[in-house]
Design a protein that fits this description.
CATH superfamily: Flagellar protein FliS
Strand content: under 5%
Order of helices and strands: HHHHH
Helix content: over 70%
Number of strands: 0
CATH architecture: Up-down Bundle
Shape: globular
CATH class: Mainly Alpha
Number of domains: 1
Length: 130
């Protein structure tokens, strides 16, 4: 049985991604699932909203589980992720699209910051120093 070429491409992309690229993929996924949940709430599809909110929660939980607390900034990230998880729980109980939009806005900001970090990590230091 031939595998779906898109699925093969997606699996290969994940298997060959660097940790930084995987983090970016997770941010992108969380944003996508958050947007799907918002649309599902607007369409009164409660089950679809629930499933996608849970997906966002799982991604945020993965971020929390992989924080390295030997770096002081990890504590700050943990607090942000904890807040987002609380908001998602509230959104799931009330099916409040505005709360999910707030979470997605935070995730977009974090994703954009992460993209900038990745870009700076790839570019050589000023003056040609590496």
């Amino acid at each position: 049985m031939t595998k779906n070429p898109y699925e093969q491409y997606k699996n290969n992309s994940i298997a060959t991604a660097s940790p930084a690229e995987l983090t970016l993929m997770l941010y992108e996924g969380a944003i996508k699932f958050g947007n799907i949940a918002i649309k599902a709430i607007e369409e009164k599809d409660i089950q679809k909203a629930h499933v996608n909110i849970i997906k966002v929660q799982r991604i945020i939980d993965e971020f929390r589980n992989t924080l390295d607390f030997k770096y002081p900034v990890a504590k700050d990230f943990d607090r942000v992720y904890e807040y987002l998880e609380r908001r998602l729980l509230e959104a799931n109980m009330t099916k409040d699209a505005e709360i999910i939009e707030e979470v997605v806005t935070h995730l977009r900001s974090m994703r954009d910051t992460w993209k900038e970090v990745m870009k700076r990590a790839k570019s050589p230091a000023p003056g040609g120093a590496q």
